[in-house]
TrEMBL record:
The lineage of its organism: Eukaryota, Metazoa, Spiralia, Gnathifera, Rotifera. Residues 1-20 form the signal peptide. The keyword Secreted does not apply. SMART domains: IG, IGc2. The keyword Transferase does not apply. The chain crosses the membrane at residues 352-370. SUPFAM superfamilies: Immunoglobulin. One of its GO terms (cellular component) is neuron projection. Residues 15-115, 128-222, 226-307 form the Ig-like domain. Keywords: Disulfide bond, Immunoglobulin domain, Membrane, Repeat, Signal, Transmembrane, Transmembrane helix. It comes from Adineta steineri. This is Ig-like domain-containing protein. It holds the Pfam family Ig_3. InterPro entries: Ig-like_dom, Ig-like_dom_sf, Ig-like_fold, Ig_sub, Ig_sub2, Immunoglobulin_dom, Neural/epithelial_adhesion.
Amino acid sequence: MVSVVIIILNLLLSSSVILSDDYLENLSVNTGETATFICDLPEKYSNKQADFYGPTGRLLITKTDEDIASGDRTRFILEHTYAWTWSLILSDVSDDDAGEYTCRVSSSSVDQTLTIIKRFNLTVLTPPKIIDITIESNNNEILRENEQIILKCSARGIPQPKIIWHIPGKKFLLNKRNDRNIIAFDNKLLIKNLSRTTPSDYQCIADNGIPPRDTRTKRLLSSISPEMTIQSSIKSSRILLNCTIIARPLDSAKWKRNRFEINNIKRKQINDYTVELLLLLDFNTNIFGMYECEAENQLKVSKAFINIDDTILLNRTTTTSAMLPKYHRISSPSYAQIELLLNHGSICKCQFYFILLINIILINYSNGFYNKR
């Protein structure tokens, strides 16, 4: 047991490191570039060889012009520039190369005592890289209208990148000129009230002075429960039913007649959340019935109804044949006007008698006025 302890102590003493003539130098190198560690030996070590050790304490290279055929050590070159100057050249620097390097000299070949001459702190400068843009809201699954949303842009790089927010199509950066509803702070973006009118795209820009900058765009689309209105119009011998639907997303939209789905409809996309369903009905076919416009998404199912019966035919007759010409003054109707009104049926006869009564009153009033004079 005692012999084992003695052996261990001898090993520790034989590989002891003396921190003398110690000096720290900071190096900063961009990714992919070359780092050069220059070690000038003191005069008392001028006849010694300098050895360079990496961040893990590994001896990187033992002699100049050494041919290393395997591993990443092929990127290391040891140069002896002058009698007292040794240089370690590291090419194609990567993130993993960052850390502390040491230049050491073996002061005795007997006890293998090492003296640290110089230390190097290598910082590898890396361009910014956006990791992700996450959404912080009350409901992470569905973005609803009138909800407060916080976007968080996470990025890495050395030095740590700064985050700038931008809305595509705008001429200003949100960090410098804030909208009342959209506020940028740190690496976050606060949207106080998410609505269908707020911008949908938000761009995160990460910059730390090391080119190139990194950008990523996040699209926010608030979910809208289906809202719909139905409008009808008569064109010649046809009825046009227009169902305007506001919804996002819109999973399904359809017209039904008496609860049966209609296939021959036309769909017109107005914008990303507005759709028109157009249904054309011909008077020459059986068009009477209850028409139903239905829209559905993950929020709810909405329906709107319109009843088509024989009253629409009466309205059609009235609107197409009972329109009278407009006059700037009231005058006695001509025989042609009287005949036209009589031919329009009972509804038009009422209009005729009303106009005739007005004319009689005006004529009697005029005669009385002149008689008084």
